[in-house]
Amino acid sequence: xxxxxxxxxxxxxxxxxxxxxxxxxxxxxxxxxxxxxxxxxxxxxxxxxxxxxxxxxxxxxxxxxxxxxxxxxxxxxxxxxxxxxxxxxxxxxxxxxxxxxxxxxxxxxxxxxxxxxxxxxxxxxxxxxxxxxxxxxxxxxxxxxxxxxxxxxxxxxxxxxxxxxxxxxxxxxxxxxxxxxxxxxxxxxxxxxxxxxxxxxxxxxxxxxxxxxxxxxxxxxxxxxxxxxxxxxxxxxxxxxxxxxxxxxxxxxxxxxxxxxxxxxxxxxxxxxxxxxxxxxxxxxxxxxxxxxxxxxxxxxxxxxxxxxxxxxxxxxxxxxxxxxxxxxxxxxxxxxxxxxxxxxxxxxxxxxxxxxxxxxxxxxxxxxxxxxxxxxxxxxxxxxxxxxxxxxxxxxxxxxxx
Length: 403
Hints:
The chain is of the alpha+beta class. It has 13 helices and 15 strands. It has a 5-stranded antiparallel β-sheet. Helix 2 (20-39) packs antiparallel against helix 4 and helix 9 (279-286) packs antiparallel against helix 11 (322-331). The radius of gyration is 38 Å and the shape is rod-shaped. The relative contact order is 0.06.
């Protein structure tokens, strides 16, 4: 038994995950290559290797002839009879070859062939390992800044976080651990090239899968995500179990689950809404936290017209149009937002609409006299308690569902 070779192959298999069978094939090929360098040909070389004990033998098959013209492939009858007296003219004799007799060049070439095979297998193992993690998240350690790019160590391979895939404003320190989304893994002659991202919307989805058990097991589905990295994300969720609240599951007790994701994203705001197959309801939810009066959606044109109260217009549009922009990406609809006044002027609402609303509001404001009164009708459970010195005219009423 070739114990030294067997131990070396076992160590390679354990440390680098390179199979013994692959390395034995590489050793056989290296021996054949050495024979070709030493004898000038390898067509008649046979390598026999025991994969259990790692014992091997190398033979040159030569034809027994009366007169030898090519010593590499022929042997005289006299010499053949020394090996086996039963050999006759025309038989094939197996001549043992001692690998120790190979020259320095042949030995070096065989060594280089084995080392090259080890490097190829290492790259293949690393590629396969990270190819399985494509479209998933990994934890990396920040190494250094390379210009505006960041070198990230992922364990057995390095990745480059390019400037385009970085969140503006995020600054990392060496040895800091961060979560990254693996966008693509390419196999190159120099090893796997791994493209990672901190801005991809799927990063948020994978983080919620890690934090929320209901998302991981499929009870709650993340139907759509719209993200402006570093600022805000809108996410629409749906529950396959009527007893599970999808939004509540993602938020967690006292916001523990969503806060864990927010902390990983360095304070990025996350809006979680209920998904609906009704496009009008979905658009209304997507514009949250703004209140909506009406939504008219055209599924064929993928366009929607939304009317909001005058005081909610800026909230619905958002800072620099962010809320409306994210809602459009989330729903896939082009959204046109108008205020009540704009809708009346364009004829989308009746002219007496404001008067009707004012009359309805008057119905909620009767009888504020002795410091506090009910802000809603008698059948409502909500009570507004105003301090005695508060100016009742400045009270902002909050509507409850169904009122």
